[in-house]
Amino acid sequence: MKRYFRSALLLTPRLQHMTYAVGYSNCVSLSQPAITSGSRNDSFDAVRGCLDLPSTGPAATTVTWNTGQTSAISGTTTAVNVGGQTVFTWQGTVTSGLFTGAGFTEVIAQNSLNLLACVFAPGVTTQSGTGTFIST
Question: Do 129 and 109 form a contact (C-beta atoms < 8 A)?
Answer without folding.
Answer: yes
